[in-house]
Amino acid sequence: MATTANVGFEETLWKAADKLRGSMDSGEYKHVVLGLIFLKYISDKFETKYKELVEEGDGFEEDRDEYDSENIFWVPQEARWDFVKDHAKDVKIGQIIDDAMILIEKENVALKGVLDKRYARPELDKRRLGELIDLISTIKLHENGEKDLLGRVYEYFLGKFASAEGKGGGEFYTPASVVKTLVEMIEPYQGRIYDPACGSGGMFIQSQKFVEEHRGKIDNLSIYGQELNSTTWKLCRMNLAIRGLDGNLGGEHADTFHNDLHRTLKADYILANPPFNISDWGGSKLTDDVRWKFGTPPEGNANFAWVQHMVYHLAPNGVAGIVLANGSLSSNTSNEGEIRKNLINGDLVDCIVALPDKLFYSTGIPVSLWILNRNKKEHGRFRNREQEILFIDARNLGDMVDRRHRELNKEDVGKIAETYHNWRNADGNYEDVQGFCKTAKIEEVRENEYVLTPGRYVGIEDVEDDGVPFEEKMEKLTSELGELFAESRRLEEEIRKNLGGIGYGV
């Protein structure tokens, strides 16, 4: 079974590090570990270049320009990992790390205000901190032969922290298999990509991987994002930095609805997993907002505020891939049905995918993928899909990776994306598959009162005929049921006798 999970030394590192967590809350521990991993990586990368320059023997190893030219962060002497490691058992190790973070921010404008600088706080056990430093020291996070070694560790740890924090703690992290499905579907090859609820930046990272896998140039992708939570905004900045990606996340964390940092942006691709069913998003202050072209979103639920915000920011040929709670597919309360109807009649809905349950760490709410498209007419390699919507019911896909979590494997992701591409592309070979996918005319959706639940359109999966006549099956089932009833009566009578024998008549 091929999965999108990373296994190997990341898991070993996680298990060892998690033992050191002790009584520390995982929400706090997350920043301690990720901050140290980030510090170790930029120091390792600096040291790799430093040794190269020493070997060249021209005396340029302390020349700042040699590092800047290759987008390598400048790490001052007292912020380098060897210095930190040598003081791991020092009672002042927390302050030494804080000072290292301050020095790095001072020397690298791109990291200003990003790094966690609370390692000296009294509640952080310095013995455990020293042990964690010793542990991280055993892993070389920058090797020339492994371009994204840290990225693997970082992504793995983000997922593990989301799982450890459980419900409400995974808001900053969208499972990799869900992100990969969206990216594979909409193919953000070049242009402006935007995520208005970017969390730790998973959509951007997966887009980068897509471009690299298809031998494209990452420089052809311009990244724009926004995030409300200050800590998560910093995580995203770090996540982009460790991969050498430039992203415009605004100068600070901010509320996308009330302080749109990219007001004039028209994006070619939008990828987002906005928080589900937010009730306190301040809708009462935005009733006449220019973004609400398809109807005013209800004050008690931000789902369709997110959808309309993204539609507003789409370029004329732009496409959006959005993760939404399944309630958005059929809800008619508080104007949601009217907004959905207007989006459908405006021919913006391209494809709806129902996903299996248990994919998310932070919620058990079943979710779906919405693919929205500004231009469904024939253009480029795409056929004319006006007045059509593709429905995919993927609820039966995925494998349980533990008792609580499911993951879409590589074949699952490929099946969903390929189905959409075969339907969308001019050279595609699409066919409806009973129980899995169906292309429906908007007129049919109108007849279904604008409900977008895929199961309503794709029907029930065909069961392979085993050649046994229906009458024979019924006769066998009836006989088996009769035997079970008889056995049930026999056991009931036996229990009555046994109870009677000890003086308890029933």
Written account of the structure:
With 506 residues, this protein is α/β, with parallel strands linked by helices. 41% of the residues lie in helices and 11% in strands. It has a nine-stranded mixed sheet with strand order 3-2-1-4-5-7-6-8-11. Strands 9-10 form a two-stranded antiparallel sheet. Helix 8 packs parallel to helix 13 (410-424). The chain is globular. Residues 1-7 have low confidence and may be disordered.
Q: Give average pLDDT, whole number.
A: 86
Strand content: 5-15%
Shape call: globular
Following the backbone from N to C, one meets helices and strands in this order, namely HHHHHHHHEHEHEEHEHEEEEEHEHHH
Which spans of ≥5 residues are poorly predicted at pLDDT below 50? 1-7
Distance between the termini: 55 Å
Instruction: Estimate percent helicity.
Output: 40-55%
Largest beta-sheet characterization: 9 strands, mixed
**Going across the major beta sheet, what is the strand order?**
3-2-1-4-5-7-6-8-11
Radius of gyration: 27 Å
